[in-house]
Amino acid sequence: MQFTVLGSGAGLPSKKRHTQSYVLDSVDEINQYIMIDAGEALQHRILHTGIKPSKVRNIFITHLHGDHIYGLPGFLSSRAHQGGEDVPLTVYGPRGLAQWLEVTFEISGSRLNYPLEIIEITHGECIEMDGFKVHVHLLDHNIDSFLYVFDENDKKGALDPEKLKRIGLEPGPAYARIKNAETFEFNGETYHTADFTGPDITGRKIAVHGDTRVITTPEYMSLLDGSDLIVHEGTYLDGEREKAHRYFHSEITDVLENFKSINYGSLLITHLSNRYEDGFLDELEAKLPSNVYITHDFFEHPISRNSQGNK
Ligand SMILES: [Zn+2]
Ligand SMILES: [Zn+2]
Questions:
Q1: InterPro entries this protein is in (predicted)?
Q2: Is residue 309's pLDDT more than 50?
Q3: Element (H, E) at 114
Q4: Ligand 2 center from residue 66 Cα (angstroms)
């Protein structure tokens, strides 16, 4: 599994940073790319990657500010011509998303040739999708903005060939049948598959924020605790904490301070203002803990298992 930042900028695009779009590459797990936000020129960013639009089956929109959604109608329209015909797609997002998309498609005469479902979300709900449960939490922005926590389902442990050999069952086609069954028979005996597998594999947890001020409530902190990856905005990186608060955004010092009390694997800082020069960002990153990254467009971060805990 890998997290890719397609657009790392805040508000206005620049030549280097497009506005916000992310992709959670879960092709190895569920044969899908999960998209989070769809900033302007999303389609152009995808052209530089190996992402197949037909494999995007679920899109999660954090909030309805233009820098997070203006690429969505274009992507949805083009997807049909990129192998997505008849392949269903669900878009989750705040109230108003369905109306905006319906009016846009109607006025522009766009017709999709695949089933599109638009689901408007609310704080506190849990969405069940292939391979994941997705927790929804309201953030603190000047319009409704949401955090999505992708909780990968635990997987059954792999078969242990050594244990099977002990009862005389050698590797072969029977292993595939046993793996998917609760019990199996061999030489007239009935066995429980669970006695021949390793421990269950714990799913990973990826927390992706929309725009927000720093939040410190116990409910929010416990939702994030144990994340393998946290993606959080850092619209302000230069100490302007008061300004960040006034404009409903975050300053990086506060973000880092807040997460000191929880365990997490890595932290990606995104949604960066294009007023910051590369030199400033390089110097800043050198001062940060080694598991905190200032991202750029096309930044890729593999998400390994059991990576929780401050390094
Ligand atoms: Zn934004
Ligand atoms: Zn915003």
A1: RibonucZ/Hydroxyglut_hydro (IPR036866), RNase_Z/BN (IPR013471)
A2: no
A3: none
A4: 8
Domain boundaries, the chain: 2-155+201-302, 161-196
> Which CATH number does the domain 2-155+201-302 belong to among 3.40.630.30, 3.60.15.10, 3.40.1190.10, 2.60.40.1240?
3.60.15.10
68 known member of a binding site: yes
Q: Which residues surround ligand 2, an ion (CB under 5 A)?
A: 65, 211
Q: Counting ligands in written order, which one lies closest to the CA of residue 20?
A: 1
Helix (H, G, I), strand (E, B) or coil at 214: coil
Q: Catalytic positions, please?
A: 67
Q: How much is the pLDDT for 179? A: 85
End-to-end Cα separation, the chain, in angstroms: 20
Nearest alpha carbon to residue 75 among 99, 107, 51, 96: 51
CA of 270 to the centre of ligand 2 (A): 13
pLDDT at 34 over 50: yes
Q: pLDDT digits over 185-216, tens only?
A: 999 999 999 899 998 889 999 999 999 999 99
Give 183 Cα–ligand 1 centroid separation in angstroms.
52
pLDDT band at 306 (very low <50, low <70, confident <90, very high): low
Does 70 score more than 50 pLDDT? yes
Distance 12 CA to ligand 1 centre (A): 9
Residue with tokens 């999303």, as numbered in its chain: 42
278 assigned binding-site residue:
no
Question: How far, CA to CA in Å, does 224 sit from each of 84, 109, 277?
Answer: 34, 42, 31
Distance from chain centroid for Cα 193: 33
